[in-house]
Amino acid sequence: MAAGGLSRSERKAAERVRRLREEQQRERLRQVSRILRKAAAERSAEEGRLLAESADLVTELQGRSRRREGLKRRQEEVCDDPEELRGKVRELASAVRNAKYLVVYTGAGISTAASIPDYRGPNGVWTLLQKGRSVSAADLSEAEPTLTHMSITRLHEQKLVQHVVSQNCDGLHLRSGLPRTAISELHGNIHQTGRTCHKCGTQLRDTIVHFGERGTLGQPLNWEAATEAASRADTILCLGSSLKVLKKYPRLWCMTKPPSRRPKLYIVNLQWTPKDDWAALKLHGKCDDVMRLLMAELGLEIPAYSRWQDPIFSLATPLRAGEEGSHSRKSLCRSREEAPPGDRGAPLSSAPILGGWFGRGCTKRTKRKKVT
């Protein structure tokens, strides 16, 4: 006899009985599921009796069905009709005018007009991967700041927007002319880039969170500036973000304050977000469409993007001779045709430029800690 009081043969018999019961339960679950998919009028008397005898399974399956439908609806894109959207934009314009300290949170949705895919939209990275489809890499060398990027920059120039907190790593906020001091880019992990510092020779590292990657830092980089802006904000405008990541940082939402003292929240997104119930207003529309209407309502002109004046060319570090074959993307170059007529005689740098280093530096890897 074993220490538990059962012999080996008895334990095996008990295991067979347990497995048989589990299989019977699974088969019953499949039968009930098939019956529930039928219309009530099409069910036989025997099937009706089986449902009556399986009330617990029916409740479980119906609950699963409701959750699946809820998740499906959350992933669907919803558009306000034009008149309703214009009315909401008028309300948003009033909030922007009256805000004492307006902070803008931006996500991947503001860059889709630049052919950079988002994550959770119908053609987003996460959505395609969930469907088992391949994801093509976006060519950032061809991307340019969108109408939304340029509008945010103009609103900052007019002192209507005080700070921007962005999850994006495409550099388009900086390329639109938004000053570094006005933006916090919430990057989170550190990776070797394959390049070395031209002064000290050490490995250069980036600060980008790759899609699907678990963060390794205790808090995102530039966190202090982001939380300082949130603590001063009386109005927050969220543009093109699913807020699935940002919702995890209570300090961005001033959750320690009483609800009456928290910033008023305005959300522009085609899909559901976990902050919708907290929002003073939810606008279902594309970011560029909403910002075009908003700028018209505010009486502000949207500046045009000029590749010739793109700050990336002054912020970037040119590749050195030994690094020419270290990248696969197209190099960024300006041509004289892009220059204003009066500047076409100005000398151009002979070295092509690939990207730039926009962060404030790297921090050592630390254990992941809960961020409040």
Please explain how this structure is put together.
It contains 10 helices and 8 strands. It has about 375 residues and is of the alpha/beta class. The strands form 2 sheets. The chain has a 6-stranded parallel sheet with strand order 3-2-1-6-7-8, sandwiched between helices. Strands 4-5 form a two-stranded antiparallel sheet. A hairpin with a 6-residue loop joins strand 4 and strand 5. Helix 4 crosses helix 9. About 5% of the residues have low confidence.
Order of helices and strands: HHHHEHHEHEEEHEEEHH
Strand content: 5-15%
Query: Would you report the number of β strands?
Result: 8
Summing up helix and strand content along with how strands pair, one would put the structural category as alpha/beta
- The span between the termini is 55 Å
Query: What overall geometry do the principal axes of the alpha carbons give?
Result: extended
What is the fold's blueprint, element by element?
Elements: H1 8-36, H2 45-53, H3 55-75, H4 82-98, E1 102-106, H5 125-130, H6 147-157, E2 163-166, H7 172-175, E3 183-185, E4 191-196, E5 203-206, H8 223-232, E6 235-239, E7 264-268, E8 281-283, H9 287-298, H10 312-315
Parallel strand pairs: 1-2, 1-6, 2-3, 6-7, 7-8
Antiparallel strand pairs: 4-5
